[in-house]
Amino acid sequence: MAFEFTAENQTEFERILSRYPQKRAALLPTLYLVQKQHGYVCKDAIGFIAEKLGIEPVQVYAVITFYTMFNLKPVGRFHLQLCNNISCMLLGSEKLLAHLRSRLGIGLKETTPDGLFTLSTVECLGSCGTAPVLQINCDPYRENLGIEELDRLLDELRASAGDAPAAQE
Amino acid sequence: MEATLIKHIGHTAFRDIDTFVQGGGYRAVEKAFGMRPEEVTEAVKSSGLRGRGGAGFSAGMKWSFVPKESQLPKYLCCNADESEPGTFKDRQIVEYEPHLLVEGIIICCYAVGIHSAYIYIRGEFAYGAEVLENAIAQAYSRNYLGRDILGKGFDLDVTVHRGAGAYICGEETALLESLEGKRGQPRLKPPFPAVVGLFNGPTVINNVETLAAIPSIINNGADWYAAIGPERNRGTKLFSVSGHVVKPGVYEMPLGTNLLALINDCCGGIRPGRTLKAVIPGGASASVLRAEECNISLDFDSLAKAGSMLGSGGAIVMDDSTCMVKVAHTASRFFYEESCGKCTPCREGIGWVEKLFRRLESGGGRETDLALISDICDNVKGKTLCPFGEAFSAPLDTFVKKFREEFLEHVRQKRCPFGNPPPDPVH
Ligand SMILES: Cc1cc2nc3c(=O)[nH]c(=O)nc-3n(C[C@H](O)[C@H](O)[C@H](O)COP(=O)(O)O)c2cc1C
Ligand code: FES
Q1: B294 and B404 belong to one structural domain
Q2: Which of A54, A79, B209, B300 has its CA 20 to 30 A from that of B289?
């Protein structure tokens, strides 16, 4: 199915284009816009973006794969990105990771069968003073996390997704 | 000493332009507009301000390298990539003092004759980007940005541009590539960005903290600034302190502050019942200091003399419960993940080194691995296009040299003597 921007996003796209003297410079913001609309960058969207920006699809693809924040495949509704760099490691991020793995029953870069959670580790999020740090999607960070906060957070997320909170293990 | 960079840390009120202006904000712009552009650059030069992004190059000097006349438009790129592990200071300015940054940007652009500025902010700071967007929109609405600013005939547009998760895009030429919509791989220098930069135009690249220091220099004068801190290391600096201290956070102190004083007086010391073991003083690219080396002045020159660097001013503090092999492996994994892959010594070298650290941490290492790590690091130094090669080879080699016994203990015991489980298999 051909990819098209919604009318609202088309307007946003034109606003983005107006900020750069060269169309190609709008590539990163355009990829974010596609991801906002579609959740990930599908094959059709790659061709669509290439045409809009006057570059080759392979140039779009090369950029997507260079950066960590663009997805070529669908991810869960909540993408849990746990920092595992030095300061977070010093304050226990590994325990949090082990806990997330066992509670969600998935490994890194995997998604729960209900499509709710994808689990990833990320490099320093620039918030080491409030380690350990977790980012969900592109939302403000969850900071100073312990196991209890993490459990509460998972329940909160499940509830916000319209699910009953998980039974106590 | 009064804070000038993060006066309102923790208070969101100063995101609002009216509150900011009532507190004396944007006064420096008016003052600068009353000076000739060269005078502004001269003031910044004589203030002694050195770049806060890591390299510590004179800000005024950098501005003066940009040709006055140019066929192509000139640009300012504000570096808000903040990806150096252990660093979280620019984020405080972005979130709590966005107008201070905008004010610094306006003054820089006026001094250099720039009419288009981009703030390149790391993708994960989506929230900070939003705070900046709002501040910029307000600045437009009050004519601090846009056409004929304050009726002085100066035009300036500022755009927030989000990165997308790549440490290397903090390196200035990789940042330019990324902003142009390409893979973030560094460019060969020369030509330097001041001559051929963004969209081939002459370009100034400055860190957030550097630009945020400009308004107080203009308001209070270069002499005022030059009186803070030791010779050649002027002004206050934001220190991000994380790890095993009681009160981690960002502290604004004069350059030349003693590292132990920062840890004990500002951060409440080491966690109770523990003692200091080591500090990485300037982000993961800075070589580690042993506890006995920590009685040191935090400034560019003293740390360079001690074989480390001030870098971004991100101090990662470690107590005696810390396994240095694990820290070294974690650092190596980070650099392995983030090498852009352009230069062979970096791409191949860091992969090899990461595997060796992993093996050592798992308890499967050999004594000869230590010399091998040093040898590989030595072969990367000076053989890469950008400083990323040095950024990992120097600190990783230092871990091995300064904590040799601890590495050997892992080899002898065939496990981590601190009882840490082996690291995850390669992911
Ligand atoms: C690998 C690498 C990563 C860097 N990351 C950053 C960064 O995140 N933020 C930053 O301001 N400078 C970073 N720098 C330094 C920039 O290349 C550049 O020197 C700096 O932005 C210039 O600004 P300043 O003169 O105001 O310090 C990095 C350099 C290297 C080699
Ligand atoms: S180490 Fe986790 S936020 Fe910096």
Answers
A1: no
A2: B209
Query: A114-119 long-range CB contacts below 8 Å, 24 or more apart?
Result: A114/A163, A115/A76, A115/A77, A116/A76, A116/A77, A116/A78, A116/A157, A116/A158, A116/A161, A116/A163, A117/A76, A117/A77, A117/A78, A117/A79, A117/A80, A117/A154, A117/A157, A118/A75, A118/A76, A118/A78, A118/A79, A118/A80, A119/A80, A119/A82
Instruction: Identify the CATH number of the domain in which residue B211 sits.
Output: 3.40.50.11540
pLDDT at B3: 87
The domain boundary, picked from B290, B319, B348, lies at: B319
Of A26, A67, A87, the CB nearest to B166: A67
The average confidence (pLDDT) of chain B is 97
| Residues framing ligand 1 (Cβ under 6 A) | B 51-55, 57, 79, 81-84, 168, 170-172, 205-207, 210, 386-388, 391
In a domain, B387, yes or no: yes
ipTM reported for the complex, 2 dp? 0.96
What's the whole-number mean pLDDT along residues A33-55? 97
* Domains of chain A by start residue, with CATH: 7-66 (1.10.10), 78-161 (3.40.30.10)
Per-window interface: B 235-274 vs A, CB < 8 A = 240-244, 248-250
B182, B328: one domain: no
Q: Is residue B419 part of a domain?
A: no
Answer whether residue B252 is part of any domain.
Answer: yes
State pLDDT tens for residues A99-112.
999 999 999 999 99
Q: Please tell me if residue B146 touches chain A, with a CB cutoff of 8 Å.
A: no
Ligand 1 centroid to residue A95 C-alpha, Å? 32
**Per the structure, how many domains does chain B have?**
3
A66–B249 C-beta distance less than 8 A: no
Is B215 found in the same domain as B250?
no
The B residues from 363 to 402 touching A (CB cutoff 8 Å) are none
Establish if B161 belongs to a structural domain: yes
Q: Which residues form the domain of B315?
A: 236-319
In this prediction, the residues of chain B whose per-residue pLDDT falls under 70 are 1, 426-427
Of B160, B192, B226, the last residue of a domain is B226
Min Cα–Cα distance to chain B from A112, Å: 19
